[in-house]
Amino acid sequence: KCTFKTTVKGYFDRHLLKHPEVASDFKYSICIHCNATFVGKLSLDNHVLRRHPEFVASVTSKQHECTKCTFKTVLKSEFNRHLLKHPEVASDFKHSVCIHCSVAFKEKRTLDDHVVRKHPEF
């Protein structure tokens, strides 16, 4: 029996790829540059940004670009989490901090998912 838990739908969808008996119900996006498979267009676009930056023009999802470094993503939650790495920007955010390991998150739902995955005993 699988014990995977998450509060984030995207993580759950990606995890289901490990279970072929249910994975056939999903629409896949395949990278034309390396044949990697993803659940959904956002994941594919994020992959292209990171692994194939020379083809960034093919990314149709909205891109979030850090003004302090070269980081780019199409996932708003990932962008917000990245901003916490820059103290001059991070101070503008209210942080949700894990009481078990002190990792900071911008969104409470991301903190909740972290606790479920990293600290299941609580």
From TrEMBL:
Superkingdom, natural source: Eukaryota
Domain C2H2-type: 98-119
Protein name: C2H2-type domain-containing protein
UniProt source species: Callosobruchus maculatus (Southern cowpea weevil)
